[in-house]
Amino acid sequence: MEKGRNIIEYWSYPFLKDIVVSEKGKKPKAFSFQPDKGFIPYLDIKALETGDIDRYAEEESSKILDDRSIAIVWDGSRSGLVEKGKSGAIGSTIVKIKPFVLKVDYLFFFLRFNYSYFNTNARGTGIPHIDPKILWNIKVPLPPVDEQFRIVDKIEKFLKIIEQGEEHIKNAQYQLKLYRESILQKAFTGQLSEKWRNEHQPESATHLLHYINEQKQKDHEEAIKIWESKVKKWKAENKVGNKPIKPKNQKQFPNLTNLELLDLPDLPKEWEWTWSGNLFNSVTSGSRGWAQYYSDSGSIFVRITNMNFGSLELDLTPDKIQYVNPPDNVEGQRTKLQAGDFLFSITGYLGMFAISPYLENAYINQHVCLARPSLGYNKKYFGYYAISKTGGHFFLNEKQKGAVKAGLRLDDINRFPVPICSLKEQNIIQQKLDIAFASVNQLEKLIENSLNDCEILRQSILKKAFEGKLVPQEPNDEPTSELLKKIQKEKYEWQESQKEKKKISKPKTRMEALTIEQVLKKAKEPISPKELWETSKHKHDIEEFYLELKKLGDKVVEIKSETESLLRLEDAN
Q1: 2, 98, 110, 508: which sits with the fewest CB atoms below 10 Å from its CB?
Q2: What is the CB-side half-sphere exposure of residue 70 using CA atoms within 13 A?
C-alpha cells in the first residue's frame, strides 16, 4: 500500500508519470580517472550517496543529470534510492526524473519517503529492479506551490535537528569502536593484566608452549589409533566406500627470528611470540560441490554469511542457516565441526573469526577455514586476539596487500604471530575482556536502537508532511488545478523542444543493411566481431554472417591484443 494516502480537500493526486519526464542512464564510451577536458563526474551509486567521485565520463557519449533533477537507483539491492542536487553522467542503473513547476525538493522527499515501498516491491529474480508500474503510477499528494515551499522548509528544519542528533550518536559509536580496539591492544601487550602479573609472578610462556606441543603429539597419536581402527573395520567390510584418510601431523613451526620480532610490539618478559600454527592440531578448508546436498533440514552448513566482524559467535539465526544432507562417505566429512573449533573467513570478507559452539552435525563450505585448536590454552583468549585490528585480523589482511583477488591460503592461517602468556594470565585477560565487552555490546545495542529511532522519527515527519499535517493549509494559495495546468503546459513545451532538437541534430552515420566488406571499409578503425555482426545486414542471422565472413577469407585480418580480437580489411588503411 502506498504511504500518505489521507485525502486533503485542497490538494490534487496526480500519477507521477503525469507530472515528470524520465530518462534512463547509459554506460559512457570512455572513462578517465582525472577531470580531463570533455569529461564530467561519473555518478554511480557511491558517488550519489557520498559525493566521492572515483571516475569521470566522456560527456559527449553520456546521459546527463543536472542539479534540478532527481536521480533514482533503478537496478540492484538499493533500487528505489533517490538523491538530488548532483550534476554529472549517469550509468544504466540510474534513472533521471525531471519534474515540472512543482518544487524539486518536495518531490524528492516524497520519493524518499516511499523508498521501502519501491525497494520491497522490486522485480527480478537475479538483479532486482524497480517495478515501473508501481513507480510511475504512484499518486503524488500535490499541494499548492506555496505550501510545497512551507512543507519543504519545515521538513529541512526537522531533519537538520535529527541529523545533528545522529552525528552525536555516531560519534559515540565511533568512540566505542576505538575503546574496543584500545582495550584489545592493552590485553595483548600485557598492560591489561600488569597488576595481576606483578602480584602473582606467573610462569614463563615457554613452559606452556612445550606443554601445548606435547598435547599436540598425544592428540595425533590418538588420532592415528582411531584411524587404524577405522581402516581395520573398512578392510573387514570388504573395503566398501572410501578408505579412511590418515590424519596429518601438524608441523611445529620454528621460533620467530630476531628480524621478525623487530616489527612486533614488545611483550612482558614472561610472554613469548609464537606462530598461530603451533596452537592448532590441524588446519583445513571446506570442499566444493555441496550444493547438491542442500536441503530444508539436516546438518548445518556454515558459510561466511554466518560470520560477523568483531564477533566470536556464529550467527545461526533461522534466516541465515543453510542445511545439507551429505552421505556418510562424502569427502567433506573431514570438515565436520567440533565444539571449540576456530573458523576463519578466507575469501571475500577477510578477517572474520568465530569459535564453533556444540552443533550435533555441522560442516563448512570452501570459503571458510577450520583450525582445530590443541589443548593447553584459553580458546577465547585466542579468539579475542584473532578479531583484534592490531592482532590476527591485522596480520591476515596484511597478507592481502597487493593481491589481485582477496583470499587466504592455509599457510597464512598457520603463519601469523600470536602473543602467549601463562594459562592463568590468559584466563584473567579473558575475564576482563568479557566484562568490558559485555558493557560495550550493551551500549552498542542502545546506540543502534537510537539510530533506528532517528529513522523512525524521520519517516514520521515525512508521513505527516504528505498527510497535510506538518503545516497549515492557506485558502489564499493558488489552487492545485491551476498548478496541474502549468505542469502540463511546461511538460508539453519541453517535449516539443526535444523533438525540435532531434530534427536539427546532425544525423548519425549508420552502417545498417551493409555487407561485412562494406562495414569494414567504412570503419575508420578495426572493430570487434560482435560490432561487425551487429552493424552488418546479418545482425539477425548469425549463420549468414559467418558464411559471408568465410567467403571473404584472407581479405579479413584479425588483430589480437591482450584483451580482445579486432577485425579489419587487409587493404584498409
Answers
A1: 508
A2: 24
Distances (CA, A) of 290 to 329, 334, 360: 13, 14, 19
With b for 16 or more beta-carbon neighbours within 10 A and e for fewer, the 526-546 pattern comes to bbebeebbbbbbbeeeeeebe
Under a CB-based contact definition with an 8 Å cutoff, are residues 204 and 272 in contact?
yes
pLDDT in tens, 511-545: 456 888 888 888 777 888 878 877 888 776 777 77
Residue 205 and residue 59: Cα distance in Å, rounded?
65
Q: Mean of the pLDDT values across residues 225-245?
A: 86
Which residues of 66-198 form beta strands (DSSP E)?
70-73, 82-84, 88-90, 94-99
Range with the lowest mean pLDDT among 6-15, 75-84, 408-417, 465-474?
6-15
Distance CA 565, CA 322 (A): 43
Strands 39-43 and 88-90: parallel
The pLDDT of residue 1: 38
Those residues whose C-beta lies under 8 Å from the C-beta of residue 398, and which sit 6 or more positions away, are none
Fold of 252-261+270-421: Adenine-n6-DNA-methyltransferase TaqI; Chain A, domain 2 (3.90.220)
Query: What is the pLDDT confidence band of residue 3, given thresholds at 50, 70 and 90?
Result: very low
Name the CATH superfamily, with its identifier, for domain 16-141+479-503.
DNA methylase specificity domains (3.90.220.20)
